Amino acid sequence: MSPAPKPLTGILERLESGEVVIGDGSFLITLEKRGYVKAGLWTPEAVIEHPDAVRQLHMEFLRAGSNVMQTFTFSASEDNMESKWEDVNAAACDLAREVAGKGDALVAGGICQTSIYKYHKDEARIKKLFRQQLEVFAWKNVDFLIAEYFEHVEEAVWAVEVLKESDRPVAVTMCIGPEGDMHDITPGECAVRLVKAGASIVGVNCRFGPDTSLKTMELMKEGLEWAGLKAHLMVQPLGFHTPDCGKEGFVDLPEYPFGLESRVATRWDIQKYAREAYNLGVRYIGGCCGFEPYHIRAIAEELAPERGFLPPASEKHGSWGSGLDMHTKPWIRARARREYWENLLPASGRPFCPSLSKPDF
């Protein structure tokens, strides 16, 4: 299979036709490791200070199979960035559009929960912050909008209501697990409220690994079906295994954020995740923190039969380790098969470390 050029269509047209849309992956965690983002505030000044680094990461995701270039605007609202917010949002849009133009990709303008909701549930003030970013996205003519990383469905609903003021499709993802949001509202009820607010695409992102995120997606799907509502489903989990985290997700694990490497999902884990997401009925499938370009390639390779083509990055990757059949050592050649990698139980190489941790909160 080889890439098949086609006319650029909108996000809803793609999803309504049954097409698989592959999102992008990790920016904050990845760029922190590469030396371009500072942990703590996790703000995206890099789009101005180091645009080549952001552009390169966008390109890696595009080459791996991403259909969406999401603007690197996480926490880029005025409450977090003061006077820099407008320039950062504009620069992020330009970088995403530049890279999207090199392939069959759409540009999504992204907003996230504010830093003030937990302390001041001032709806007017919070909506003003969302609206400021929306104005930049409208000026830069993004293709659709994503409200992501919301712990509270109330604030997520406010975000959807603001984004619906534009004429662009709205997706919304919450950073919750099966227990629901921080006010104990179930995933199913969260999905219902978000769709009623006007979201066309709903789901979860970040905070939890693939397995937990898919459990939450199943609950969201059930809630929508029970309410007689329809929406497209979207999932973008961590690229880490986090079965031991609590309601707050991986941020409460003692390894967060600088010691998570032993939890990284393999490419084969992600192929399994992509298949399970597809079988669940999710058609917008991507990743968040810890999700590297090779993880995105794994989604594209697993779903190549449905999509009809492989991404450019697969030119250097043999399916299920098939490239190893050229190796000089016979025991390594024996690994050039699907059964080997599907059944592998990878060791951590750390004999005195536990397999699970105890959350700090």
User: How many β-strand runs?
Assistant: 8
Low-confidence stretches: 1-7
Fraction in helix: 40-55%
Overall pLDDT confidence: 96
Question: How does the helix and strand content classify structurally?
Answer: alpha/beta
Distance from first to last alpha carbon: 48 Å
Count of alpha and pi helical runs? 15
Number of domains: 1
Would you give the CATH topology?
TIM Barrel
Brief sketch in words of this structure:
Its cofactor is Zn(2+). With 361 residues, the chain is an alpha/beta fold.
Walk me through the topology:
Layout: H1 11-16, E1 21-22, H2 28-33, H3 46-49, H4 51-64, E2 68-70, H5 78-81, H6 85-100, E3 106-112, H7 123-139, E4 144-150, H8 153-163, E5 170-174, H9 187-197, E6 201-205, H10 210-227, E7 232-236, H11 267-280, E8 284-285, H12 293-302, H13 304-307, H14 330-333, H15 338-343
Parallel strand pairs: 1-8, 2-3, 3-4, 4-5, 5-6, 6-7, 7-8
Helix pairs in contact: 4-6, 4-12, 6-7, 7-8, 8-9, 9-10, 10-11, 11-12
